[in-house]
UniProtKB/TrEMBL annotation:
Species of origin: Algoriphagus chordae
Protein name per its UniProtKB record: Putative outer membrane starch-binding protein
GO terms for cellular component: cell outer membrane
Gene3D superfamilies: 1.25.40.390
PROSITE patterns referenced in this protein's UniProt entry, alphabetically: PROKAR_LIPOPROTEIN
Membership in a protein family: Belongs to the SusD family.
Keywords: Cell outer membrane, Membrane, Signal
Localization terms from the record: Cell outer membrane
Chief location bin: membrane
Domain SusD-like N-terminal, residue spans: 58-222
Superkingdom, natural source: Bacteria
Entry-linked Pfam families: SusD-like_3 (PF14322), SusD_RagB (PF07980)
């Protein structure tokens, strides 16, 4: 296992680039600053890499709408059904979107912009003088690029596979790559990342990708490909040998998301935010707070995006410690009156400025590793062994653990596992991918449309989910460019 190079640490400290404020750095497009005026010194490359981490924020700002809102975890708020402002969200909620959709385009554009930043670093690595720094930058860039393409291929299927900087003319000549090609590209990038990233960093450098984060992401990729024997091996390594843990105790779950406990031992990788008017604060506390709640919930009011579905709320048992950390059933308003209006509270923190919260957004948690490992064990015929890891999640949540006699079959274990994943990762953009992986989207959403009272009162009409909506369409404006 590689250790963080002390020489690199000293170098970064000397640059003043080892604090959480690094994320405020951004990098102008190379076309704006001139090809020859940047990527000349090692400090240029460190600054550029910070910009790549910073670039994770933009696509994440729209990801909830493409994942949670399309799943059975959340829906439109009742007040958002009549205004034209919310048409894009309605189309995602009802699975009626087209290739002209704004959220889809923004996610696509923001992701490829950051891939371009990453590719630029990789293309220019020959200019890095320190060999150890060069290896680290290549590994970090490979991890971030694999992360982006993993999201793209799961959301869109076949996409453009861009592995170097390209000109506008070259862009018009590209063809989409097959999913097989994209997944192989992801695996190749993760091979570099797992081999060359350090297992840990100095505390002041928290937030950079580690080899354990790369291995966990590799396990998720293998799971997505149904390569469960390989998933079991790599996830077992993370479970047994990484420094990561489930935060213990009755407050363990809530402590995962506490702003005074960022990058704690349960977090393998997160998109980081910093409050304070730096332009890198998190938007989700305001996005998800109740609309027209004034300052009773959060300064600057809320948008009430991602309203928890009644079905999700009903799945939390009364003694599940995760519920109050994930959502609230309402808030205390004027004159101390309770306003029943469910909203997502998982990413809440006090803000001085709207959409400027401190909360990091977890991408890979140790809880995810444990449940993915349990899934792999079950799929590999080791259900009795898998039960231990499912029960570790339930025990922390304050729930009764399962006995072997409670599991009727491997399929029954999968059903219980998916419910646990739904509750554990509510509003962390995981549910959609789980439904797709187990071919449950159409059945689940059709049931939600039929049973959720909100949809029965919908004035736009509800249609059964069409299979061609399981993948997002390539944005039309991008298709037009590539067809020139």
């Amino acid at each position: 296992m590689k250790k963080f190079n002390k020489h690199i640490a000293a170098f970064l400290i000397s640059l003043g680039l080892l604090t959480s404020c690094d994320l405020s750095l951004d990098l102008q497009p190379i076309s704006e600053i001139g090809e020859g005026s940047f990527y000349q010194t090692d400090s240029d490359f460190v600054t550029a890499m910070v910009a790549c981490y910073n670039g994770l924020q933009a696509p994440l700002a729209n990801e909830w709408a493409l994942t949670e809102l399309r799943s059975d975890n959340s829906r439109l708020h009742n007040s958002q059904t009549s205004s034209n402002i919310y048409i894009p969200l309605r189309e995602l909620d009802l699975m009626t979107f087209t290739s002209e959709h704004l959220y889809i385009y923004n996610y696509w554009s923001d992701t490829y912009q950051n891939i371009s930043r990453i590719n630029t670093i990789l293309d220019k690595l020959e200019n890095v003088q320190d060999p150890a720094l060069k290896d680290l930058l290549q590994a970090e860039a490979s991890f971030l690029r694999a992360y982006h393409y993993f999201n793209l291929v799961r959301l869109f299927g076949e996409v453009f596979l861009v592995d170097t900087r390209i000109s506008a003319q070259q862009a018009t000549e590209m063809q989409v790559a097959s999913t097989e090609e994209i997944f192989q590209f992801i695996l190749d990038d993760l091979a570099i990342a797992t081999a060359n990233l350090p297992g840990s960093y100095p505390e002041s450098y928290n937030g950079r990708a580690t080899s354990w984060a790369a291995k966990a992401l590799l396990g998720k990729v293998y799971r997505n490909l149904n390569r469960y024997p390989e998933a079991e091996l790599v996830l077992a390594d993370v479970v047994n040998n990484s420094p990561n843990i489930l935060l213990p105790g009755n407050s363990g779950y809530s402590n995962v998301f506490a702003t005074d406990n960022e990058m704690n031992a349960e977090i393998l990788f997160a998109v980081r935010y910093k409050a304070g008017g730096l332009g890198i604060g998190g938007p989700f506390a305001n996005y998800f707070a109740p609309q027209n709640s004034g300052s009773y919930v959060i300064n600057g009011d809320g948008n009430h995006f991602n309203r928890p579905s009644d079905d999700l709320i009903s799945q939390f048992s009364e003694n599940d410690l995760r519920m109050n950390s994930s959502l609230q059933l309402g808030y205390t308003g004027a004159e101390g009156a309770f306003v029943p209006d469910p909203y997502v509270s998982k990413f809440y923190s006090d803000v001085a400025i709207s959409q400027d919260a401190e909360n990091d957004f977890p991408i890979i948690r140790f809880a995810d590793v444990l449940l993915l490992y349990a899934e792999a064990l079950n799929e590999n015929g080791k259900t009795s062994m898998a039960l231990e890891y499912l029960n570790r999640i339930r025990e922390r949540a304050g729930l009764e653990t399962y006995e072997a006699s409670d599991i009727a079959s491997s399929e029954d274990f999968t059903t219980k596992l998916l419910l646990e994943r739904r509750l554990e990762f509510a509003f962390e953009n995981q549910r959609w991918y789980d439904l797709v992986h187990f071919n449950l989207v159409e059945q689940t959403l059709d049931t939600q449309f039929e049973n959720e009272v909100f949809y029965s009162e919908y004035t736009f009409g509800i249609s059964p989910v069409q299979s061609d909506k399981l993948l997002l369409p390539l944005p039309q404006r991008e298709v037009d460019i590539f067809n020139q």
